[in-house]
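Supplementary Note 3. Input sequence used for the single-chain structure prediction.
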Amino acid sequence: MDGRVVQSGLASETYNCTIHNTTSSAGLTVQGGKATNCYVYSSVADAISSNSNASIISNCTGISDGSEGIFINKGKIYNCLGKSTASYGIYLTQATSYAYNCTAESSANAAIRLNTSKIYNCQAICTWNDVSGDGIVVTQGNGFEIVDCYAEVVNSSAHAVDGNQSGIIKGLSGKGMTTLIGTTTNTLTNTVDSAGNIILA
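The predicted structure, written as discrete structure tokens, is reproduced below.
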């Protein structure tokens, strides 16, 4: 469909949809409901956005040529792809913003931007050939978690994770960078046991 979809309320559910959005607002906005198996393209604004802790977005693709592919103010995303040619592939803004098993791609900025958010088993692919073309950038607030994630960059001076903040980083791997972590401080102090188990604290 052409246009945009705005959910309202916890009972709202959107499934198996294709949205082509040319407005100045997000193509799909989830406000406490669920979105599953949706493909959203936005030429101007975010493709997919969420502003409720109760929002659950799964198996969705958000592609934007004007802003973020997926913008999560609050809520959770699972197995999603966020891609942007203008900004971040995925942008998570709050401590209640989570991403699980997601992939973010950007050709104009870091692939993933997060503040005090949590990401697990995610991939961040940045094709922007710039020293700021990081896989993941942490811009505000301490207490984030980056666990078992992979980042790929094209500029060797960029990083898998960068940003002058502190939080937990575990199981990070990367390709294309000279230094894996930039100015970010890893606060993980526990030692992994012989089986690879650890308490994130």
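The radius of gyration is 16 Å. The chain has one domain: 5-186.
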